[in-house]
Amino acid sequence: MSTLTRPKTDAVATTPGTLRGSARVLLRAHRRALWAGAALLALGIGIVVALRVWMASAKELCADGDMTPCGGPVYQPSYARTSSETFLADGGTVLLLVAGLIGVFVAGPLIARELESGTFRLAWAQSVSPAHWLAARLAVPAALAVVGMTVLIAAYRWGLWALRGYPYSSMAHWHASGIFPGTGPALLGFTLLAVAVGALCAVLVRRTLLSMSLTALALGTVALGLGQRRDELWPTAFRQGHDPVRLDSGDWVVDMGRLTESGRKLYWEDCYDYAADPLQDIEACWRELGAVAHFSEVHPASHYWPLQLVETGILLALAALAVFAAFRVLRRLHG
């Protein structure tokens, strides 16, 4: 694997050495990718619009979405509504995958392919510094991706808004792993991280397929890690009472159980052992352990924005570190 040494040449620049000139060259070279991205954007918006139109055309007889006579003992939602709930329930996951795809593109076709084939030397020989060369390959996809993902977030939230307030809805709540990532600024943070990680993997490995694979692995690890630890990003609300704690429809229950006089928390695991006795009386067990009250730890719906912003901050910090590392690696490699 050779060192990326900048060619020494006195040739007059035919390509502008500014970031703007490098960006124009980059856009012309990857017109097909731009059209593919525009097609994905149009497809995402089209799906949401089609679902809204489908729901609007359903023969719902009541304001609550019931297709049977209003106020009757039976509630029957329309097939359009239940199908839309199913389609939109994993929209956040789909948007994460789209962001990851952007990072994979940056890692492979945008940067690593040039480093692997040696075509980067042409740009460097035309008064385009390595820093400008890499900055253009970070700034252009980052700007386009943020604009496109912002539009998709707005479209997704518009689609979800049509499903609010209907009884007996099977739609997952705001905190669901398939919804939360695609409804706020955390998705933009993940998109910028995807671009930064793609660039870092490309300059580190300088092999197209390997760079793409490493980028996908790194982004998948971050997404899964945040998904599993998301409830720890903001302090939960603690509720207790002698009777079972009342929960609101938008509450994200993180944990619940019983409290002793001393304040010690008892969880169902402390009393329930299905393998030993599947029919055991958990209430009796809790009484024996001194339980006197109920408690729950929840994230109410008001915690949506704090969780989104903290997650966004973490992702932006990781993206900044990846960008810094990419420039340091490039500077070390080209001497």
General description of the model:
The chain is of the alpha+beta class and 335 residues long. The protein has helices at residues 19-29, 31-56, 79-88, 91-117, 120-124, 130-161, 185-205, 208-229, 282-288, 304-334; strands spanning 237-241, 252-260, 265-266, 291-299. Strand 2 and strand 3 (265-266) form a beta hairpin. Helix 7 (185-205) packs parallel to helix 10. Mean pLDDT is 85; it is low at 7-17. Helices cover 57% and strands 7% of the residues.
Largest sheet: 4 strands, antiparallel
Would you count the extended β strands for me?
4
Low-confidence stretches: 7-17
Order of helices and strands: HHHHHHHHEEEHEH
End-to-end gap: 15 Å
Spatial strand sequence of the major β-sheet? 1-4-2-3
Fraction of residues in β-strands: 5-15%
Total helix count?
10
- Name the structural class: alpha+beta
Query: Helical proportion?
Result: 55-70%
The dominant shape is flat
Over the alpha carbons, how many angstroms does the gyration radius reach? Answer: 26 Å
Mean pLDDT over all positions = 85
